[in-house]
Amino acid sequence: MQTPWDHRFAQRTQRMGSSAIRELLKLTEEPDIISFGGGMPAPDVFPANEMSEACVRVLRDIGDLALQYGSTEGFRPLREMIVRHTARYGIQVTPDNVLITSGSQQALDLLGKILINPGDRILVESPTYLGALQAWSAYGAEYVTVPMDENGMVTDALEDALRSGPKFIYVLPNFQNPTGVTLSLERRHKLLELADRYGVPIVEDDPYGQLRYEGENLPSVVDLDSQFRYSGEACYSGNVIYLSTFSKILAPGLRLAWVVAPAQVIRKLTQAKQGADLHTATFNQCVAYEVARGGFLDRHIETIREVYGHRRNVMLGAMDAYFPPGVEWTHPQGGLFLWGVLPETINAADVLKVAIEKRVAFVPGAPFYATGGGHNTMRLNFSHAKPEKIQEGIARLGAVLYEKMGLQVNY
Amino acid sequence: MQTPWDHRFAQRTQRMGSSAIRELLKLTEEPDIISFGGGMPAPDVFPANEMSEACVRVLRDIGDLALQYGSTEGFRPLREMIVRHTARYGIQVTPDNVLITSGSQQALDLLGKILINPGDRILVESPTYLGALQAWSAYGAEYVTVPMDENGMVTDALEDALRSGPKFIYVLPNFQNPTGVTLSLERRHKLLELADRYGVPIVEDDPYGQLRYEGENLPSVVDLDSQFRYSGEACYSGNVIYLSTFSKILAPGLRLAWVVAPAQVIRKLTQAKQGADLHTATFNQCVAYEVARGGFLDRHIETIREVYGHRRNVMLGAMDAYFPPGVEWTHPQGGLFLWGVLPETINAADVLKVAIEKRVAFVPGAPFYATGGGHNTMRLNFSHAKPEKIQEGIARLGAVLYEKMGLQVNY
Questions:
Q1: Which of A18, A145, B90, B126, by CA, is between 20 and 30 Å from B400?
Q2: Alpha helices, DSSP H, located in A67-184
Q3: Which of A22, A63, A253 sits opposite B66 (nearest CB)?
Q4: Are the CB atoms for B211 and B248 separated by under 8 Å?
Q5: What is the pLDDT of residues A377-406, one digit of tens each?
Q6: Quick check: B367 contacting A, CB < 8 Å?
Q7: Given strand B142-149, what is the order of strands in its sheet?
Q8: Can you list the domains of chain B with their CATH numbers?
Q9: Can you give the pTM of this predicted structure?
Q10: Which helix (H) or strand (E) holds B205?
């Protein structure tokens, strides 16, 4: 059907591709497919009972407030809880430094809206989180990239990239999406030193920071930056905007996340959010606060770590057993993903087609590269499928890889 | 504190003012102020018990789905329910014509994102909904306006405005925000005829359509347009994009609304929404569906109509009793608002300052005018305050108006 809207779409829509991941997710919704595609938490660790009890209490005790319009900045007790949470990691902020958003994706979108003029360059890791590229490309962003290795962003390549005058640096230091790798402490210091030298601020995206399965916690970039500037004092420097979320520690179906930023940035973000959705659902904020306030989340995160840590081990073990020689992969210390690199001659999108026939799915890596490349890479999620399914799915995928690479299965 | 972000804000932030309404709402949160300012439903009609029971059932029966990531288009059973709801009003659509949004404000924002190039003119009523101006100005929209009278948009002035080549017409035909007036049937036909002659499509925003307290329901613009083009057949024409919401019939704290549009427009909106917030909270969609599916909402809307209809009558009666001669106001047949016009010499913003001292508040009308004017107008909400508070608040406001207009109170 032709309509008068067809010729009326704005120019920016030409830069708004549909997310390859989400289109793929649809394809892999059929129940017999073992999907390592999405970035989904395990439903096994959803605290449905605690949520249910919290809903009942919220609607009984503060229903009038929870069902009503609320302030754009967010439910004050939840913002104060995030202030206390941030202080535990070493930084003093106030509620004026906190905005509640409808998932971290909205935080990325609002940052694009208030910061990016068409043609502005953003410095990103290569590969980087696809959702950030999707949000910012709609505002006309261009990208300058820095490669990754097993210790995160290669900071030796950072200085060249900074010389191109990026508006800000976007970094996912912990168990990065998509690669699963963690930025080393030495490189965190190097990143801050170079960012300071070139006067370029940082957006730190940290959805998985609390989901570490081995090794020591590293201080966040926002934390180190504040120490760096104030000689160890716990005062927030304002040079780093920090994003995190309830999606991975409570439930993504609530769409609840937060931004920590200088008060003047929060004010701009709040103006942008007023026009974007007025505010994040009051009910969801009240329920999340109610679930979290007795310390339940801290205990719950322990459970998540156990479940996901085990699944990561199962996936790594299965890959050792079933993947052909010539394929390499990362060994994440936390998070939801690991990253596979196939021989140069193999295209991961071609592998996916065969894999789906064999009822197993993953995400080809190319869309995570802002400036091209990565045709032979793949992202695998280890949090969602149950261990026996992970085992079975990796075996199927291994067989596909053997076939695609023209090798005889030797196990 | 100075930060490196201060000089990095995008140019579009200069067009993003903070909403006067929302800043005012903060001011009037003190409990002793009687506020006619917000557009808030009465907490008296929030179905907290039904919501509570629905939450428990959803988390017990489909918790895994309700707490997980969902599709950007929205929860399928809810979209199918909206298809059935739309059919009751005469138009056949499919789920491909429906997108669930995080409140109607998000629908307005996404429409701006996919349709508005900087400098595009949008044809709006004068005055019109402030939130639409706020959303679209961020994308560089300019406005051409058509005046309102007691029968809605003055269609005799429409042709001139259409000659300026607007991208689309934005209209709130039922109990308009802010004026409370309804577009007459004759003018609905005239609007469609002129829109067709000039080839300009329409965005119909209908948050209050089901909240009519007197008079006959009028067919929606989307309905009439489909009849107009298909000689009475119930097939959706695609020329009108229709917006509505659960905020006024269930609860605004859920942030749930919907768009009906041609499938290709829904696809573009879906791409934009992926980048904006991935999807609307799955949990909220499941709970709203669970509350609505047994027919509860139809019965609940009857309750809302009774409560709000009574409050409207109380406010109109109190205005007759307490407002000075020389002030005029609309007599809405539904919705949440009425509109006052003061003598030309009186500035409503000045009145508000004195009113707040007397512990009563409203919204000055000027910000609702896209191209200036309206300094002597005011919006009054009659849904939120209880009848005795309405009585008392209007008496206080009447006294302020007598004083400001230099008149002796004569009651």
A1: B126
A2: 76-88, 103-115, 130-137, 158-162
A3: A253
A4: yes
A5: 999 999 999 999 999 999 999 999 999 999
A6: no
A7: B98-101, B257-260, B240-245, B202-205, B168-171, B121-126, B142-149, B152-153
A8: 11-46+298-404 (3.90.1150.10), 48-294 (3.40.640.10)
A9: 0.96
A10: strand B202-205
